[in-house]
From TrEMBL:
Gene3D superfamilies: TolB, C-terminal domain. This is LRP1B protein. InterPro entries: 6-blade_b-propeller_TolB-like (IPR011042), Cueball_EGF_LRP_Nidogen (IPR050778), LDLR_classB_rpt (IPR000033). LDL-receptor class B repeats lie at residues 1-43. It comes from Notiomystis cincta. PROSITE patterns: LDLRB. Coiled coil: none annotated. The gene is Lrp1b_0. One of its GO terms (cellular component) is plasma membrane. Pfam families: FXa_inhibition (PF14670), Ldl_recept_b (PF00058). GO terms for molecular function: Wnt receptor activity; Wnt-protein binding. GO terms for biological process: canonical Wnt signaling pathway.
Length: 179
């Protein structure tokens, strides 16, 4: 799945399959300007910053069990969001500090370091990486991903895929080759 925020005409947090199909709104009320998003892949939670409502909130992948982690004026200066173990990590653009927020007790906020021009934060740790399994977009014997001549996108499961073409090409009637 692909998770993303949108604060156009109707602010929301959404999810869809990697090929763009099955687009679903998971949060569309009491939300104004969601600017950063992080996933807890193990427990299947979605965290986001809303800089207009000055809040950090969480829901499960279906949009249920919504909770506010923390609120306050300091939220309007946050950008980027990552989750690891018991904490959320973000950047305070006002003073360029990396903050750690306890995701179960939003009052436990700690500045960890200062970095010039920091706009985003990511946590890379082996335990946060899902184990790779065989999937529909693996290269075929000719080196084509999923048998697609240009782009292979996973669909509703790791066993299904959709082929797409680069700009200027159209998908052939076989659903795999680009012309």
């Amino acid at each position: 799945k692909l998770f993303f925020t949108d604060y156009g005409n109707v602010a929301k947090v959404e999810r869809c399959d990697m090929d763009g199909m099955n687009r679903t709104w998971i949060v569309d009320s009491k939300i104004e300007q969601p600017t950063a998003l992080a996933l807890d892949l193990i427990n299947k939670y979605v965290y986001w910053l809303d800089i207009y409502l000055e809040s950090v909130e969480v829901v499960d992948y279906q949009g249920r069990r919504r909770q506010t982690i923390t609120k306050g004026r300091q939220i309007r200066h946050l950008c980027g969001l990552a989750v690891f173990e018991n904490y959320l990590y973000t950047v305070n653009s006002d003073n360029l500090s990396i903050l750690r927020i306890n995701r179960y007790n939003g009052t436990d906020v700690q500045a960890l370091a200062r970095l010039e021009n920091a706009k985003e934060v990511r946590v890379h740790q082996k335990r946060t990486q899902a184990a790779a399994r065989s999937h529909a977009c693996e290269e075929d014997p000719y080196g084509a991903p999923g048998g697609c001549s240009h782009i292979c996108l996973l669909s509703s499961s790791y066993k299904a895929r959709t082929c797409r073409c680069r700009t200027g090409f159209i998908l052939g009637s076989d659903g795999r080759s680009c012309k």
